[in-house]
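Lab notebook, design round three. We kept the backbone fixed and only want residue identities now. Task for the bench partner: fill in a sequence for the structure below.
Input structure tokens:
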């Protein structure tokens, strides 16, 4: 065997020895030789890999975990008015039968797989719960689901909850109004006045009064810059040997579901939807909440961020390394470029990994801690209260809300009009899994790409979504558009009527923590000389991630 000047076998010879040993052992029907029989380099590699995992476990053991607590509504109300109960037996008011609800919670507390096969079901229910056992799943990368801090949602009777619901009634009412018309539409102006009068308006807009420029938007700096919709939901997506144009088949206007009490009650009891969406034949770009809600109806967990990564990787091919984060060790190199590390394969894989970790973390909170009722169920509480069938402690801000009154006049019911025929998904509302995914994946994208790089030739959709037009306003940056993409996806679920703003805004922040924890674990795995990831948070503060730590 050839040796280098030190007398040690060369890297190529070591690799050849390992391969040939494995092949010979396989042919002979035997396992490859034990680690003690391999060359020293392989043993060192094994020890290094072990050390990295032990160091990660040590950081986990030494970390402080937050105390996660619900808002108290589940214990406060014997009728479980504020708790998720879809597919369980319900009375005619749409409240879960108490014994069934307790059996449901006992299964969640028991943590034994067989308990979930005995979950109580409404007679004739065919719809199944969405993966409650994901709440108990673990992972090897990033922080554990229980280690991600998340405060409780607004209480049922609070002004914050009233603001959550008031905004949803207005989002439903304006679902077909083009985003570009918010500045001139009289109903959008009415929504701004009505929402600004709420006692908890700052939960909708931290600055105070809601304006056409902040209506239904997120609160990150990027959310307020440029068009309502992120460039990553409009631009063509390079996809292998083809290009995906983001003009899709979307539902026709003026469709709302679950506005009749009998349909709503059947839905809560686990029946299949008795209606379906009618789609337009002519595809269009996202131009209103109608399209945005349908996009987040059909997307898979990391789809928008996979698309964004592919778009930005195409920018790297066109404009060079300036599109990459300045922390990328291959930026400006004349001899090599990143691929499996710090390149496309690394980025695309980590985006998917972040989404799965975020999904697990959100389901931990949904099923085991908060079990918050969905907006469609809160709308039924409003309907029963207003009809005099039962008095609920609903905050007067909501009962006096003009958005509620206009919605009721339009659909002849105080039930919240839902964009999806099947209503909400069959898992609790808080937090939004879409928001967790968005926060985690956005953190990954911002760590790998130059957040200050200007978007070349930005666009905006026409009012009817038939075409893209040049954006003539202030320059847009990749970082801001990533944040906007995350908010579009999260708040798009609100526009559908299946989540509250508090589900989404708080979910975005917690999801960001998931993404940062993954990046911290990833930061110790590279061979390159690497000073760490850095990214700007949604509030504009810089985060540095180096050697497994967040600085």
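Proposed sequence:
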């Amino acid at each position: 065997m050839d040796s280098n000047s030190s007398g040690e076998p060369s890297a190529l010879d070591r690799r050849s020895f390992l391969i040939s040993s494995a092949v010979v052992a396989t042919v002979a029907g035997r396992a490859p030789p034990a680690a003690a029989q391999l060359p020293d380099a392989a043993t060192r590699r094994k020890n290094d890999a072990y050390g990295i995992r032990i160091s990660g476990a040590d950081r986990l053991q030494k970390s402080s975990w937050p105390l996660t607590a619900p808002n108290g509504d589940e214990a406060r109300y014997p009728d479980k008015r504020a708790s998720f109960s879809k597919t369980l037996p319900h009375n005619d008011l749409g409240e879960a039968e108490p014994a069934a609800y307790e059996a449901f919670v006992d299964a969640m507390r028991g943590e034994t797989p067989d308990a979930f096969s005995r979950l109580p079901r409404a007679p004739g229910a065919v719809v199944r719960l969405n993966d409650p056992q994901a709440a108990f799943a673990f992972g090897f990368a990033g922080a554990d689901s229980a280690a991600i801090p998340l405060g409780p949602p607004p209480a049922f009777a609070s002004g914050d909850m009233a603001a959550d619901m008031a905004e949803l009634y207005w989002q439903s009412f304006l679902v077909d109004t083009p985003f570009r018309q918010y500045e001139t539409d009289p109903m959008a102006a009415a929504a701004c006045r009505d929402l600004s009068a709420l006692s908890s308006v700052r939960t909708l807009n931290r600055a105070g009064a809601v304006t056409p420029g902040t209506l239904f938007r997120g609160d990150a700096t990027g959310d307020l810059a440029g068009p309502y919709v992120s460039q990553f939901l409009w631009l063509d997506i390079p996809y292998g040997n083809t290009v995906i144009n983001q003009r899709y088949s979307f539902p026709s206007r003026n469709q709302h579901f679950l506005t009749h009490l009998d349909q709503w009650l059947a839905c809560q009891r686990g029946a299949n939807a008795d209606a379906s969406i009618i789609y337009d034949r002519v595809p269009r770009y996202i131009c209103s909440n109608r399209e945005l809600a349908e996009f987040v109806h059909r997307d898979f967990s990391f789809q928008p961020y996979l698309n964004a990564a592919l778009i930005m990787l195409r920018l790297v091919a066109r404009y060079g390394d300036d599109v990459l984060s300045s922390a990328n060790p291959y930026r400006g190199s004349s001899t090599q470029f990143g691929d499996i590390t710090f390149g496309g394969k690394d980025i695309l894989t980590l985006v998917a990994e972040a989404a799965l970790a975020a999904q697990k973390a959100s389901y931990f909170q949904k099923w085991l801690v908060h079990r918050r009722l969905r907006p469609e169920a809160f709308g039924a509480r409003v309907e029963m209260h207003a009809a005099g069938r039962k008095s609920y402690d609903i905050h007067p801000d909501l009962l006096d809300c003009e958005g509620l009154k206009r919605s009721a006049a339009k659909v002849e019911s105080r039930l919240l009009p839902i964009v999806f025929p099947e209503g909400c998904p069959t898992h609790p509302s808080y937090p939004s899994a879409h928001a967790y995914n968005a926060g985690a994946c956005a953190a990954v994208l911002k760590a790998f790409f130059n957040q200050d790089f200007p978007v070349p030739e930005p666009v905006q959709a026409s009012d009817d979504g038939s075409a893209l037009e040049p954006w003539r306003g202030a320059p847009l940056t990749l970082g801001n558009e990533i944040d906007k993409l995350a908010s579009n996806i999260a708040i798009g679920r609100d526009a559908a009527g299946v989540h509250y703003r508090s589900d989404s805004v708080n979910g975005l922040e917690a999801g960001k923590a998931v993404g940062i924890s993954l990046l911290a674990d990833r930061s110790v795995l590279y061979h390159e000389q690497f000073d760490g990831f850095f990214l700007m948070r949604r509030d504009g503060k810089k985060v540095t991630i180096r050697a497994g730590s967040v600085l």
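Keep this in mind before ordering anything: The beta strands are 237-239, 242-244, 459-461, 468-470, 533-536, 542-546, 549-550.
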